[in-house]
Amino acid sequence: MLERFKLVKNIMNARVVAKKMKHFAELLLNKNKLKSKDQVPFIKGKRGIEIKTAREVKLIKKSSQIVSKVLSEIIDLIKPGMTTKDLDNFAERRIREMGALPSFKGYHGFPASICSSINNEVVHGIPSKNKIIKDGDLVKIDTGAYLDGYHGDSCVSICVGNVNEEIQKLSNVAYEALFAGLDKIKAGNTLLDIAGAIEDIVKKNRFSVVEDYTGHGVGRNLHEEPSVFNFRTKDLPNVVLREGMTLAVEPIINQGTKYCKTLDDRWTVVTRDGKFSSQWEHTIVVLTDGLEILTERNI
User: Which of 29, 98, 46 minimizes the C-alpha distance to 221?
Assistant: First the structure.
């Protein structure tokens, strides 16, 4: 699941003094909604970037491996004629069977355990019994699991059946861009190193990087600092990577324009031009000389 950013101007100093990250889901928070008894807690005790201990990394890896297992199973399960609600029911059941809670369900009112975004839907698609998966669809499945106080988060793009060659390329380039960014991760490098590598792959293939949504830190909360952006910018902090940072890296790329809009359900984001979108995501931990992919899966 992604974060959305906006710039905040400090009028008292008559200049921009901060670039503030804000979770997209928090913009939609309805404080009057009741929480289910097993809804994942939102931890407010810490601020800023958290450097995880070896023990914390092991716990994040446990939750991340549940996410990896569920996504691998969905890749095998999905077929034309299924509904996105079928996939959501499956994901929630499997996450709970493995002893965890779905990170997304109830998160600031989100009603499901997965985000299921089809074709021109970019992110945060709500599963529905009325959304039937068809041959040739590009389906993005994003999910998270919460176990022993820590989250894992990952997303895959699934080409269902006989997919148009250009759409297959879109998914392949998003996947390649993810790993180009991951290749830049090690202690001492920066977020701009990741972003530049991702952006170069996408632009070389004449696709566009969605700029409204970014990756994020992950740990005790599903969304933590920093914002892991996928494009070169001076508007967000260019954080130096440190060993023990746990990040969700998730490039989103569009077939056409980078611009998006949110539908009336206040969650589902679609491309403005109606063209397709693809997303891949991994949760990782920064190491001295590289990284470990905590949501690694064999697909």
Answer: 46
Under a CB-based contact definition with an 8 Å cutoff, are residues 183 and 216 in contact? no
Confidence of residue 24 (pLDDT cuts 50, 70, 90): very low
- For residue range 154-175, list pLDDT tens digits in order: 999 999 999 999 999 999 999 9
Residue with tokens 């176990």: 147
- What is the reported pTM? 0.89
What residues does each domain of the chain span? 40-293
CATH topology of domain 40-293: Creatine Amidinohydrolase (3.90.230)
Which residues on adjacent β-strands are paired with residue 15? Answer: 10
Judge residue 258's burial from the number of C-beta atoms within 10 Å of its C-beta, 0-12 exposed, 13-18 middle, 19 or more buried: buried
Structure tokens at 121: 């839907």
Q: Could you give the 3-state DSSP secondary structure of residue 203?
A: helix
Chain mean pLDDT for the chain: 89
Six token digits for residue 208? 């566009």
